[in-house]
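W.,

You were right to be curious about this one. When I first looked at the sequence I had no strong expectations either way, so I just let the prediction run and decided to look at it fresh. Below is the sequence, 355 residues in total, followed by the output.
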Amino acid sequence: MLDWKNRAGSAPERAAEPKSATRSYLGGLLFSRALATLLAIYLLVTGILGWYWSEEPALFPVQQNAQMAAEKEGKQMVVGYTTVETLKTVAGTLLNKPGGYISNDRFPPGLWMDNMPSWEYGVLVQVRDLTRALRKDFARSQSQSAEDADLAKAEPRFNFDNKSWVLPSSESEYQEGINSLSRYQARLSDPNQKTALFYARADNLNNWLGDVGTRLGSLSQRLSASVGRVKLNTSLKTEVVVPGVAPQVDEEIVETPWMQIDNVFYEARGQAWALSHLLRAIEVDFADVLAKKNATVSVRQIIRELEASQEPVWSPMILNGSGFGVLANHSLVMANYISRANAAVIDLRQLLNQG
């Protein structure tokens, strides 16, 4: 027989059960709302930070920057000082800009960003190329001479993995590379030190410009591939030519994946930003060589094209319209500037090759 008196409990207990359930429900609701509010605030803050960190650094005056650094350190403005100081400043910008170095971030907002890491990689490419040129050409009198010890340490530091987070981090390796450049620069500007050298010769400059032209040519092709283009196979074997019949040439459509278009664009922006500063430094340290070769105007032309590519992008996204379509195609506009700069590099190298 059921115990009806004990089954439902006492009257006070039955009255307390709805109140307890109500408090539990309200507590869960308040917790959910608090959690949602915190999440919304977090997303808002990271979004604002991401927007701020996405701002590209402005151009800086190269010659004034080198003069200020020399005065601060009490050093002389010898040949090569401006180039090394500009290289240090460009590399330091990667570490000291808003948000610092972002390419190896593992947490938001850096984790969500892809435009700025692409820009950083473009800058890093030019830093690596000029550091190698310093070690291989600018600081050596001839091919059989010994390389500078500090430059030999700087080059592998800058060639470290650009996405390493810890043990060691990319930032620490790049900072060590900057420190090695500083030691070389200090010896270069010290009249009592004869071990650090900088040879501002036409052949040295021409070798580095060869690397510059290769980089710009590759960027131009990658940017142009945003709309898809027909590429001819240039690695054909020798075939028998039949009289009256045109030889067959293999063709393929090359097109940048849609998700990679903005990455290529910002990598090109980064390379152009870095290269415009480095060329202004070269214009100072190689002024005598450029004047003798009547090549100063050619350098200015390259710089003008590169700096023109740094105009602000007012669109909230990188547009990829067809070549003659209604919408703009930012990649093709950038490719135009890069191609003209590359053509000017070719002309400059021809002038340097002339006696």
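Here's what jumped out at me. The radius of gyration is 30 Å. And, maybe more interesting for your project: The chain is about 60% helix and 0% strand.

Coffee later to discuss?

I.
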